[in-house]
Amino acid sequence: MIKNSLICHNAQFEHKWLLYNGYNVDIVHDTKILAHLVDERLPLDLESLCLYFGIDKSYKCGSAVLDLEGIPLLERNTRDAYNTFKLYEVLYPKLSREEKNIYHKVLIPATKTLAKIELAGIQVDEKLLPEIRQKIEKEIQEIDLQNDKTIQEFNVFSQKMFNVNSTIHKKLLIYDILNYKIIKRNKTGEPSVDANTLKALLLKEHKENKHKSGNNCETCKKQTLYKIVATSSLQGYLENFLNPLPKYIVDGKIYPNLWLAETSSGRIKSNNPNMQNSPKDYPRQVFISSYPDGVLSEIDYTGIELKLMACLAQDEVLLKGFLEGDPHRDTASLIFNKKEISKSERDIAKTFNYGLIYGAGGYRLSLLTGINRFQINKMLEKYWEVHGCIKTYWENWVKGDLVYSPTGMKRHWTKETEAKNFPIQNSAFILMLQGLNRLVEFVEKTKAGKVCLTVHDSFVIDWESEKSARKYLPECIGIVCKHNMDWITIPITVDTKIGKNWYETEAL
Question: Do domains 6-121 and 260-305+423-507 have the same CATH topology?
Fold first, then answer.
């Protein structure tokens, strides 16, 4: 029997409510996280878990929970409390020693960490929103898609105005009228017109025509396909980001939800709004410091997953590249078989290094780089001659239908890419979560700022002044780069930037 301990289902939600109302408590167990650790395929709501493990029958039928009051509400809450404890008794013994270690030292503390970040929120410059929106609309007008000669021919032929968001319109125009070669099909067998495929088509044409002035050269900009890709991207900024943003603003801030245990890899999930999808471009100018003379800083892990793959696979060539030089330049020199490397060749090598982490093969790499499959396969032969250890590293972590991370966490897998990715992604997630737990605690103690957001591999801090940011950031960097994973044999590093808003920043 546990004494003097608070057990919850969804501790992050409880921390958020308690902190908002001035209560700083310790929650020692969370049955939602326990369920995710036991089997990431389990449902996460209390009622479903109780039904699954035979703890209780369904009891929430009838009146909605929000309509309950008096004795029915008391009965419901006491029953939830009882079921949470019984669920804890079922789930906790199922954890391995390693899982219990991560659970107590990283995941449970992170429920309070993320609750504090959610409560902090990030300030929005509401006056700037119309200006950014107008800028995007002006760029769309300058592209002038509807006055493109091919688009006009399509409009006459179909007797409909071309809709850049219409899958059917894009498929007809790109493959039937412009006669682009099909390089990818969707699940139904139809030619793909998703954003990545269209960008790959554009890149492939750029490479074949041997344009020398970059992917956004003036020749490309005159092409119908370029106009479609650019217009779609800009409209995405509006429809998926700027236009919905105002409905999430409360007293000048947005307060995104940041969820643990919501993804199979363990990564943090964001919604209301989903800040993982915020464009890495000038629309980020709308996010500013909440202090009158404040600044925002972003701490971004550099090459974290590639570094972890090199350590897991004990790839001496990649490890040496990180320690002594530039691993992407080394890879470029290898696959292009030359010493003098251009920026575009280094970019292709970077695509190789990171693409292979996520299970990309020759077909996918060809899409990403615009290089034909024959050349890609030749490059891959050279790559695997040197980095063959990467092909076998993940086998050490697979046991049947389960793949294990060095952290001790596990997941079920059905695709080979899932088995390859999980040890890397989960190790990066736990390393960053450890750093985030310490970072929030440290910044809180300075009383000079607050961590207001985490997105992918980065943390955003809202500081009361640039002076405070520059004073405390060196220690922040040390905090987030610190870890206890002794199998990591190369330094963990970050890029750190400061600015008046999230977009206009300079390196520390």
Answer: no
Q: Could you report the per-residue pLDDT of 121-177, keeping only the tens digit for each?
A: 999 999 999 999 999 999 999 999 999 999 998 898 888 899 998 999 999 999 988
433-458 average pLDDT score: 96
Question: At the top level of CATH, which class does the domain 260-305+423-507 belong to?
Answer: alpha beta
92-124: per-residue pLDDT in tens? 999 999 999 999 999 999 999 999 999 999 999
Number of Cβ within 10 Å of residue 437's Cβ equals 20
Residue 231's closest CA among 307, 149, 166, 160?
Answer: 166
Give the angle 17-117-465 at the CA atoms, nearest 5°: 130
pLDDT tops 60 at residue 497: yes
Is 393 strand, coil or helix? helix
- Specify whether the CB–CB gap between 247 and 149 falls below 8 A: no
Question: What is the per-residue DSSP string for 209-272?
Answer: TT-SS-TT-HHHHTSHHHHHHHHHHHHHHIIIIITTGGGGEETTEE--EEESS-STT-PPEEES
- Asked whether the predicted pLDDT for residue 320 surpasses 50, the reply is yes
Class for the domain spanning 6-121: alpha beta
Distances (CA, A) of 104 to 1, 98, 99, 182, 404: 18, 10, 9, 51, 19
What distance in Å separates the CA atoms of residue 45 and residue 85, rounded to the nearest whole number?
Answer: 14
- State the Cα torsion 251-256-260-263 to the nearest 10°: 160
Instruction: Give the residue extent of every domain in the chain.
Output: 6-121, 129-242, 260-305+423-507, 310-404
Pairing of strands 449-455, 287-288: unpaired
Residue type, 439: L
At 505, give phi and psi (nearest 5°). Answer: -130, 160
Average pLDDT over residues 459-463: 98
